[in-house]
Amino acid sequence: MSLGLSWAHVLGDPFSASAFVSMWAQIMAGRVPPKSLHEPEPEPEPEKSETETQTRASESVAGNLYPIKRVDPVGDHWQFPNNCNIKTHTFQFTKKQLDQMASNLRYRGIREAAAVSHFEVISATIWKLLAKASEDSGPGVVTICRYNGQRENETASNDMVLSTAEVDFDVSKSDVWELSTLIADKRKDVDEKVLSESSDFIMYGANLTFVDMEEADVYGLKLQGQKPVDVNYSINGVGEQGVVLVLAGPEEDSGRGRDRGSTVTVVLPENQLEKLMNELNQEWNLA
């Protein structure tokens, strides 16, 4: 049996979608939610003139580090028309491969390698390989989307933290450890108020975007006592810079018990995706 869900960001972020599916399964099993899912009406904020809102958004977007991009008005459509052929591909890093990535850093004498997450190493690896496959030095600015860890209830919301990371060197010749620590420690958080005040912008793919869903309980769903064997997420309406989602992979037998690797979904222009997969196949034998 397979189960699919189509979800709009206006309802909530990917963590909200995951929580919604799990709650739906509980309701189908006859378990009533412990409390009302009704969210109290927020207090009204002082109204801003349209000119003030547009000026603030335009000033923010003008900055090189801002993670959104203005697009032509889309009217009542949910997605904007892209000028290139965007493709999606999903693959998995096994727990053994992830451990090998970490051991490669330790082998080079980097004791702090344990402090870097799988998400950060995977993101740094893909960032570098995309730069290596490109005709220039690769993207110098990336956007990072993370769980804020502060949800007080199960009401759907958009609470992901947006950050940007920037480099002034050739990413293709950089060190994975350097990029990993940049993503982990030197992020510049973004004021989301401007996002809420702006329309006809895209976020995913305005810069090369990495979405950290490692903390999402994507395998928490239970139907008739059974848990999912494999879970995957994808995003439509992505800009030409592309997006990479990283979430927990399916269980695997490592010989020491049940472990999980990471499932990675990449949404990129077709030519970039093909080059990236060639690079990944050479280094990690990924299909």
Report on the structure:
InterPro entries: CAT-like_dom_sf, Plant_Fungal_Acyltransferase. Belongs to the plant acyltransferase family. It is built from seven helices and nine strands; from the N terminus they run H-H-E-E-H-H-E-E-H-E-H-E-E-E-E-H. The protein is an alpha+beta fold. The strands form two sheets. It has a seven-stranded mixed β-sheet. A two-stranded antiparallel sheet has the order 1-6. A hairpin with a 4-residue loop joins strand 8 and strand 9. The longest helix has 16 residues. The protein starts with 13 loop residues before the first helix and ends with a helix. About 6% of the residues have low confidence.
Quick recap of the structure?
The protein is of the alpha+beta class and 287 residues long. The protein has helices at residues 14-28, 50-62, 95-107, 118-133, 176-185, 192-197, 270-284; strands at 69-70, 86-93, 141-146, 161-166, 188-189, 201-202, 208-213, 243-253, 258-269.
The total domain count is 1
Q: Give the ordered list of helices and strands.
A: HHEEHHEEHEHEEEEH
Distance between the termini: 25 Å
Strand content: 15-25%
Instruction: Work out the radius of gyration.
Output: 20 Å
Helix segment count? 7
- What is the highest CATH level, the class? Alpha Beta
Low-confidence residue ranges: 50-65
CATH H-tier superfamily? Chloramphenicol acetyltransferase-like domain
Biggest sheet, spatial arrangement of strands: 2-9-8-7-3-4-5
- The third-level CATH topology is Chloramphenicol Acetyltransferase
Overall form: globular
The level of helicity is: 25-40%
Structural class: alpha+beta
Largest sheet: 7 strands, mixed
Overall CATH architecture: 2-Layer Sandwich
Family: Belongs to the plant acyltransferase family.
Region (Disordered): 33-59
Biased composition (Basic and acidic residues): 36-53
